[in-house]
Amino acid sequence: MIPRSIFASEHEQFRDSVRRFIGEEITPHHERWEEAGMVDRELWTKAGAAGLLCPSLPETYGGFGADYLFNVVIIEELARAGATGPGFSVHSDMVATYIHTFGSEQQKQRWLPKMVSGEVIGALGLTEPSAGSDLKGIRTRAVRDGDDFVISGQKVYISNGQLCDVIVLACKTDPEAGSKGMSFILVETDRPGFRRGRNLKKIGLKAQDTSELFFDQVRVPASNLLGTEGAAFSMAVAKLAEERLSIAVSAITVAETALGWTVEYTKQRKAFGKAIGDFQNTRFKLAELHADILAKRVFVDRCIELLLQKKLTAVDAAAAKLLCTELQCKVVDECLQFFGGYGYMLEYPIARAYIDSRIRRIAGGTSEIMREIIGRELFI
Fold first, then answer.
1. Distance separating alpha carbons of residues 292 and 73, to the nearest angstrom
2. What is the pTM of this model?
3. Which among 18, 95, 13 is positioned nearest to 57, based on CA atoms?
């Protein structure tokens, strides 16, 4: 592998502590959480105490004031361990980032320190039954009534939905204004009229709670408005590059890890009197995957550098997500084939990686939407 140059010694020291935490607090319990459909609430406060939540927030709000590379380390180590249950990235890289970037000082002081400690769990309420990648199609309404907003509607496929305490909720505040009629409102989950629906049964990511959420005349103070009214679409666009890069970071790490498992397995597994890895077909196929992963890893690391410099464009982030998530699915599929029947058994990590990977071509904007974003840029 080409040596990576983006990390300093403090990042690698942090990586060691993250790896230990995952080995002690996540991996031994993950199978039980998959059966339960969610992780233990206690994990979040343990993760907060270990510094795994919102490390890039300023010390004023309880964070480290660290750079994005600390977030990258957490994403990579969770992906490498197959720890798909904890929804830390949604909480730290999306919800907390929205509040820190666009929130009032009162909102920041109220929510961020408890998000860092894990006392409060955040969710991002975007997707609806009739609106996925097309955010402008949302129907959830927030109607101004004096000093309050009254919210009615439904969200679906919401990560952390069963455990969350606060939701950054996308609502239509002016249905006639198109993309300029959407607003983000902070909604506490203990308010009358809010109801959690089913914890949805999914193909993969079985330990991560993913829910339907219902809002029936939920009344929240107007001070819960995040940023300015009508600005949700532009706010989401501003944050999508980081979100999609985070997905790409996870995807390329899974691809690297799956290839590593497969190389080791084919060195040991024998067929027709010799190791599977001794067959030219095996070596050629894995060599192709290795070269493809290597190229995408270099691209992702460059995108990380651009994000740190505040130069990462939405188009480049879309390209990173498209390439890496498509590659992730290709790698786990082709690697699983070398495991034969064992690859179909859930006790083998390659099988879990296979079922967990498919969502990556959908969540955060489908591969088709990524192609559309890139294509539009080409024809400007």
1. 22
2. 0.95
3. 95
Give the CATH architecture of domain 9-120. Answer: Orthogonal Bundle (1.10)
pLDDT tens digit string along 45-86?
999 999 999 999 999 999 999 999 999 999 999 999 999 999
Q: What is the dihedral of CA 342, 345, 350, 352, to 10 degrees?
A: 180
Residue in this structure with the two tokens 């902070």, named with its chain if needed = 186
Tell me which residues are annotated as active site. 243
Q: How far apart are the first and last CA of the chain?
A: 37
Residue count of the chain, please give it.
Answer: 380
CA–CA separation, 307 and 312 (whole Å): 5
| 32-44 burial: b if 16+ Cβ within 10 Å, else e | ebbeebbbbeebb
- Could you read off the pLDDT of 284-310 as tens digits, one per residue? 999 999 999 999 999 999 999 999 999
For residue 81, what are its two tokens? 């361990």
CATH match for 233-378 among 1.10.1130.10, 3.40.140.10, 1.20.140.10, 3.40.190.10: 1.20.140.10
